[in-house]
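Try this one yourself first.
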């Protein structure tokens, strides 16, 4: 049994789905029947798709914890030629923050909670307990590898693994880009300043619910703030019932979650522009 095959079987026994890597840290190419995803491919982790190829095809989606597959004759050639072992972090309930250079490592020490660290050729992998979408180049020298991605297995690392924090989840969330510089404005009152479709009590309840939604956001705060502003404006932005006191309550809730005044203004402006207000 090769060293790489032995490593893969050990990982699978611990619930970590491995796959072989060829030279250049790349997965093995699809077999002829699956070339260019002619078989239909494996689009995501939960529903592998129509392909039931016995070979280590489809990159990260080939990763498995089934020892009978890993040690099967159809995988034997790949293990003989393998230059390393990779694994699917998301399949193991793990997120890897891949730090590719010293500057990225310095940033991580200043920004991210301490967790298990695995040294790599050029930097470090910081491992967190919990899965999330993957994204490359979330900042200079930093990739996030979890669902629908693979990472090289370079050993168990050192340190105690930490639960996936919001600051890592937020790395892949892009704040709405400002459309134009603007200050917060409130639509001019209409129909005597009364909401034409609900009572003032309905508005007060809606603002309170919006505050709770922002305050309760555990991840993707930027996106939550924008969606909440959009929801409030779509209901009350045209009838003139919103006042500066209402927007101040929403802005205060957002800033309590770490949003800057500028981010609040940008999100509000973008929401108004989206709705044509």
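Now uncover the answer:
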């Amino acid at each position: 049994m090769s060293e790489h095959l032995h490593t893969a079987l050990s990982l699978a026994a611990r619930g970590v789905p491995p796959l072989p890597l060829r030279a250049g840290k790349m997965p093995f190419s699809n077999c002829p029947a699956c070339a260019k995803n002619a078989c239909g491919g494996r689009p995501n982790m939960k529903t592998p798709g129509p392909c039931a190829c016995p070979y280590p095809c489809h990159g990260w989606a080939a990763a498995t914890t089934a020892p009978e597959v890993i040690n099967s004759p159809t995988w034997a050639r790949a293990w003989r030629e393998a230059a390393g072992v990779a694994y699917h972090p998301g399949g193991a309930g793990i997120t890897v923050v891949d730090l590719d250079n010293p500057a990225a490592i310095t940033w991580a020490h200043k920004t991210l909670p301490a967790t298990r660290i695995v040294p790599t050729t050029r930097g470090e992998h910081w491992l967190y307990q919990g899965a999330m979408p993957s994204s490359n180049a979330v900042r200079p020298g930093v990739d996030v590898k979890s669902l629908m991605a693979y990472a090289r297995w370079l050993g168990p690392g050192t340190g105690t693994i930490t639960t996936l924090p919001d600051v890592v989840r937020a790395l892949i969330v892009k704040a709405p880009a400002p459309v134009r510089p603007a200050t917060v404005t409130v639509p001019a009152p209409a129909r005597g300043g009364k909401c034409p479709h609900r009572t003032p009590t309905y508005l007060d309840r809606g603002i309170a619910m919006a505050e709770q939604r922002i305050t309760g956001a555990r991840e993707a705060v930027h996106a939550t703030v924008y969606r909440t502003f959009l929801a409030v404006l779509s209901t009350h932005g045209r009838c003139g019932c919103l006042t500066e006191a209402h927007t101040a309550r929403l802005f205060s809730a957002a800033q309590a979650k770490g949003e800057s005044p500028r981010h609040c203004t940008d999100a509000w402006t973008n929401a108004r522009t989206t709705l044509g207000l």
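Discussion: The first strand starts at residue 18 and ends at 22. Residues 44-49, 179-194 have pLDDT under 50 and may be disordered.
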